[in-house]
Each structure stands twice: as C-alpha cells, then as structure tokens.
Amino acid sequence: MSWQVDSLEEPYDYDSIMHSSQWTYRNGEWIERVRPKDPNAKIGQREKLSEGDIKQTNKLYRCPLICGSQVRGTFGTITSPNYPQAYSANTRCLWEITVPVGSTITLSFTSFNLEGYVQCDADYVKIFNGPSKNEALLITLCGRDLPKTVSSTSNTMTMEFVSDSSVQEGGFSATFQAAPAVQDRNCQNTEHWCQQECKDTELSIECACRRDFELQPDGKSCKVLCRMLLTGVTGEPLSPVESSSSQCVWKLVQTQRNQVFRLTFTEFDLIKENCQDNSVRVVRRLENNKTIDKRYCGKTLPPTIISYDELTLVFDMGSSGQPTHFRANYRYEDNECATNNGDCEYRCYKTPGTYHCKCKKGFELYEKSKCRQRGFAKCLPESCIFTCLSELKLFHCFLIVTQYARKLSNTLW
C-alpha cells in the first residue's frame, strides 16, 4: 500500500515533526517499516515543528506571514520579503523606525512593484507618522509607480506591508535617514537641504529637481540624467557632477516642422587637449541627410551648432578622475530655407539666427538672393546693345576686365 503526500507545492520535508522512526511499526523484528525515497535522509520523531511544517501550516490555514522589526539608527534599508524575488502570499510585515531624538525621518523608495488596485485593497504599503499603526496615516501605496519621498514629523515612523493570496510581484526597496526637525526645515530657510528645488508641504518640505535631472534615493540630491531622449522645445543638457557611467548621451529628436536645433555652449572646461580621453562629441544631420561627427575638448567654447531632424551629444568623461564639465542649451528656431528655398535663386544655407544664399561655382551673389556669372557688371540699359535676356548668361553689357570698360559685341552665351 502506498500513497503520495501533498506538500502544498513545498519541497518534501524529511525534518517534519510528522515523521515516525523507520522502526516504529516493527513486529518484534528489526525490519524497516518506513523507508524514505532519499537513501541519505534521516527520519524520526522530532521535538519541534520544522520550517517546512510552519510554511505548510500557514498555507493550509491561510495564516498571514509575520515579518518586520524594530529599526534604529540614522539611516538604513528596508525591503519586502525575498526581494528582489517575488514576495510571498498572505504576508504581513511591520517595521518601527526610530532615529535620534530631535530629528525626523525621510523614507525614499528605490524600487516599487506591488499588485495594484485603485483602492490599494490587495497588496499595499502603509506609512504611519509615529511609533505604531495607531498614529496618523501618511500615505497608502500600491502598483508600480515609484512613490515620492515620505517624511515624518518626529523621530519615529511605522511602515506596514500586506499581501493577499492572489498575485505576488517583485516587491520594494526603500532607504530611510534622519533629517532636521520640521520646525528647522522649510523652503525659506537656506538650510532646507534640497539641492535644487524645494516645495513646502503640510508636514514638512518636498525636494524636486529641474528638468533633465532625477531625484536621488536620499530625497534631496539631484543627478543629471546620463542617457536621455530630449523632445522639448528648449532644454539644457549638463555634464554630471558625478556618475557611475563613464559616458553620457543626450539625443535630441525633431518634433517641430520647418525648424532646426540650435545648440549653444555656455561653459566648457575639459582637461584633455587631444580629445582622446575627455571630450564632447556632437553628431548632427544636415539638410541633405549628410551626417557630421565632430569632437571638442580643452577649454575653448565650441561654436554654435545647427542641426536638422536630430542631434546626438556624447560626453566621454575619461579616466583621469579630474573634474570636468560643460553646460549647453538648445532650442528650436525657424528654418527660413524650408519655405520657398528662402527666396534664394540657387542654394539656401541655414546658419545660427539667420540664413544666407549661395551660388554655384562660377557665379556670384547679388541683391542677397540672385546669381550671375562672375566678371560681368550689372545690366545697364544705356550700355547694352540688346536687351538682357538672362542674368545667368553673358550679358550684352560691359565686361569688366581691367580698370576700363570694354564693350562686347553681339554675343550671347
């Protein structure tokens, strides 16, 4: 007689308290009555529940998993059970965070992925403003959006995580740190500790970053986005103050019709003069779809750059360890050449802030947009033998070959 044990999708547990000895049911003879499939397994009566017993009991009776702890210190990290793997079903965790008296707590999430419902009534994180769940609820969180930094008004904060039995996601990771007391922390005070922008809230302050920057897990520092697609009408790429990457890339993509990018450098301080290790590379596209790829280095400001359709800016920080940086801004401006060729008779060229016309080889520009063959004076009615037929051909006027005028015969080129 044999049967299969249901372990509720858990590995078979030879340490279970439910096991009897191999010899328990012997009939006067030393013959094994219970033999495990694993020849190396040791079975027998245990003195306490095994970890497998506890897991299977919790599953069988749908008992919530208890986790969490009392956390003390000036900073630390809190993660969901099994993070970064999926958390377990029917989990309940409670963390009581305490920092030194006279300080407050800022809690910042670096990763967040929970089952999401509108009311957050499945899996959720709740944060309370004090040492227990009886204190004021600061916020309830669920879903996948990275939450904003949460601040307490005292030196204690309570964090609760609950999951149900349905869907298990990747969980969360958060960091906490001690911060100045609320009465000492406001945006009017220069000691508000926000690196860039500061917003007063009901309980405290909230730090924010300018465009093209991202707020760091400490809730106050800002770091330039090192790889970014820029589509705004204006913007300001900056070299990062510090970055784990040795190369930053900004890509500008055209979204406005009949306009071009204008990139202007306002600060430029790179160490190398040979552009081998530390440089800013600009890849731009011209009107004829030709691509120009050029590197800049040293301390001289690069020229203002015009680009059609798209522009890529690559900053190689190098390996010297010395601080280098640049600052540049971009904006769209009208492309006069896109409409009626800028009224140019031959070729229209866009330049920063304006445009100019050019003629093909052997011709010269006059009246800003027209072309005529080089060496021929302007058609003068009193000097011509015949009426001028075309300004792109030999005029029946006066050819200037020396300091004197020589009259042409009836020749038409």
From TrEMBL:
Residues 1-64 form the Peptidase M12A domain. Its EC number is 3.4.24.-. GO terms for molecular function: calcium ion binding; metalloendopeptidase activity. SUPFAM superfamilies: EGF/Laminin (SSF57196), Metalloproteases ('zincins'), catalytic domain (SSF55486), Spermadhesin, CUB domain (SSF49854). Its cofactor is Zn(2+). The keyword Nucleotide-binding does not apply. Binds 1 zinc ion per subunit. It is an enzyme of class 3 (hydrolase). It comes from the Eukaryota. Residues 67-179, 222-333 form the CUB domain. The keyword NAD does not apply. GO terms for biological process: proteolysis. Keywords: Disulfide bond, Hydrolase, Metal-binding, Metalloprotease, Protease, Repeat, Zinc. SMART domains: CUB, EGF, EGF_CA. PANTHER family: OVOCHYMASE-RELATED. This is Metalloendopeptidase. It comes from Dibothriocephalus latus (Fish tapeworm).
